[in-house]
Amino acid sequence: MTKWVYTFDQVSEAESLVGDWDSVRGLLGGKGANLADMTRLGVPVPPGFTITTQACNAYSDAGQVPDGMWDEVAEALAHVEEHTGKVFGDPSNPLLVSCRSGAKFSMPGMMDTVLDIGLNHEVAESLVDISGDAHFVYDSYRRLIQMYGSVVLDKADEPYEEILTEFREKTGAAIDADLPTDSLKEIVERFLEITPEFPSDPDAQLKLAVEAVFRSWNSRRAIDYRNASNIPHDLGTAVNVQTMVFGNLGDNCGTGVAMSRHGATGENHIEGDYLMNAQGEDVVAGIRATLTLDHMKENMPGIYDELLATADQLEKHYRNMQDMEFTIESGKLWLLQTRDGKRTAQAAVRIAVEMAEDGLISKEEAVARVTPDQIDFFLHPQFSAESRKAGDLLAKGLNVSPGAAVGIIAFDADTAVDWAAEGKDVILVRPETKPDDVHGMLAAKGIVTSRGGRTSHAALVARQFGKPAVVGIAELNIDLDARNMSIGGRVIDEGEFISIEGTGGEVFLGQLPTFVPDINDHWLSSLLEWADDIRRLKVLANADYPVDANRARDYGAEGIGLCRTEHMFFEAERLPTVQKMILADTVEERQKALDVLLPFQREDFRGLFEAMSGMPVIIRLIDPPLHEFLPGAEELKSEIAAATDDAEIATLEKILARVFELHEENPMLGFRGVRLGVLMPEISRMQARAIIEAACDAKENGATPMPEVMIPVSIHVNEIRLLKKLIVEVAEEVMEARGVKVDYKVGTMVETPRAAMTADQLATEAEFFSFGTNDLTQTTFAISRDDAEKSFLIQYVDRGVLPVNPFQTLDRDGVGGLIKIAVEGGRKTRPGMEIGICGEHGGDPESVHLCHELGLDYVSCSPFRVPVARLAAAQAVLNEKA
Ligand code: PEP
Ligand code: MG
């Protein structure tokens, strides 16, 4: 028979039933599992029990709670009563409980909570006698009715807030907690009038609250959050029913949250916010200004020391940074929750490395814990110190999520989403954010709020998704009706640009220039060095110019996997010569133009060899169809119409004629790649000469050039034979003339299914392979890489016809299958042949894993993705071991 309910002290039973801790978390939810585990550790946790995720799933399936569940709840409740010496629903000695959701993975604020369950008129009156604190009792009671209304009965919050506002205004109370007791009593009555369904029977309160929490698993916002966080929808949520402890019983009471390390920077010291004489949601709501733990250290030193020791104990136990909720009830500390803390990318890297340095976790664990996305965020743009100094500083707030963001102001989530869909960079500015704003926060580049603290919803969500955020700018006045905000006498409209700096907590008017942060940060470089020790795949970079090559090397690239030589042809001073080459009527004329281009290419290549001395530099011969270098026909026609000079008209007409001649219906399947070299060998000869001459120059300058000449878009071994012969002839001639010897290779890209299927033949000539997976995906799927994403492909992915965008993540079965065949074929002919990938997939973590599995030697990606690929390649090894 399924067991639906576990008391906090039955965790060992749950563990032996389901096996490992991960499954316990699956069964009891993260919060429930940790509460039980803390109980087992001897940490002070108010007694309670957990209704399992299985019960939630059974409820979702059947629309009613499973048989026997309420009996188990009653039994568990009796157990809690025994522990606390209080009785649920008994006015003479009442037990009050909370009812909270808790899924396997934390989903902050997404699901529901009801506090103070067990109160009714009778219990309240008697509790006043017992506690001697009527204010506290009626404050709790009005909270229960309001929460019950909104959570269980799905009522809007506004009518309750209106009543509270009315009483605050009437009594001059600044905040709800300051309302006099008589008002609270009246408020209770008014709340009951608008909540006639509220049951006075505590058992009914509990049952309906539990079912409401079950239902909240399938609320719109919870589903949105899971979609954005890749949390499966079939996990269900557990429900934790726990003895209430009160942080609002007087001045030796309080409640707060603490992180065992700094969630934004990762610094190794406890950090937190708390409020004296308050309930938990007051802290998270960010309406009252919270106090720091330094304040606690001074005012409640004993509690502070106990909290510190508990944080340390929990961190050592979980071997991870902990995010804790605590309450101090009449001078006694209670822990209400602990979980692995959300952190920024910066903090994730630092915490992982520091914990490994301190021996709490292994280096492998540190490498496994940081996600490739976090490495990416780590290297997100920032503002320079100078631009910050020169910027027009509007306001300062709390620095809750680092990084710089520039965008136009949107005052609500839907506007942010709409504008982002139009390709605009948006900063979402709100008084505070709520779970319903998450879609706008995801669409925005950054987030600003006028209210809220370090642990407010805005701060937590921003950190989790790596969005720069500044919150709690109290002076910022946001007028949602007028669609503007004002501060310091200045009024800024929606749609105006602001720049925000989440590391320092600054908001600037206008657009500040950004720069990319230092790769040499101690924590990041340690982590990446550990990853380098683990990974088998080499990581190269796609770079066309020496500056890119130098950056790539700084980022840890071990060579250049792809230099697209045609990019050099597009430069303004070169393009006219390239066009002359294309327009040439005779080979001699073409040669003349090529002679002009040669020194430019040679200089670029020399720079690459010097930047990558001792490392392979793979240079690809010209690839795109030639019309790409010429103006479009329409543009030419209007130029001709506007021209007055006869000679100019003649030239333009000649270009136009050539444009028509070169026109192809399917240029990507046309006269491009190796085909250009076969039919216009003088172009390939010039490029081969530039490469080998540059290598000789670099060698004479003291570098160790390792050129590899790469032939694009091959379909047949004969193409490679022709080109290779030509390249070798030129190379030998150059080296002979220069009296310098350089080692070089000639290889091919594998970008077509035929090349992959005949790889064994290609390898008789090709000395290396590099998978051009952009083209290989295009040719395998018969989907145009240039058009598909703007026509049907994204919809295909959205509707689940294709599981992922194959231009972003390598298609394992199709393209991956061809790569497998090609690797086997190539290495059969040429054992140990160097094989890598240089399509955009080289920087995509999932694709890097596949490349590792397929036995490639390297991945090559854009310089900025190199650190991501280094980590992903190491994680591929760790995954394999696991
Ligand atoms: C490729 O096709 O994957 C490739 C690297 O070449 P390009 O993107 O230049 O066609
Ligand atoms: Mg290609």
How would you briefly describe this protein structure?
With 882 residues, the protein is α/β, with parallel strands linked by helices.
Class by SSE composition: alpha/beta
Largest sheet: 8 strands, mixed
Specify the helix fraction band: 40-55%
Q: What does the average pLDDT come to?
A: 92
Rg on CA atoms, Å:
33 Å
Keywords:
37 helices; alpha/beta; binds magnesium ion; binds phosphoenolpyruvate; 882 residues; 17% strand; 8-stranded mixed sheet; 48% helix; 8-stranded parallel β-barrel
Q: Can you describe this structure?
A:
This protein has 882 residues and is an alpha/beta fold. The protein contains 37 helices and 33 strands. The strands form 7 sheets. It has an 8-stranded mixed sheet. An 8-stranded parallel beta barrel has the order 26-27-28-29-30-31-32-33, surrounded by 7 helices. Helix 6 packs parallel to helix 8 (181-194), helix 14 (345-357) crosses helix 16 (372-378) and helix 15 (363-369) crosses helix 21. The protein is elongated. The mean pLDDT is 92. Bound molecules: phosphoenolpyruvate (PEP) and magnesium ion (MG).
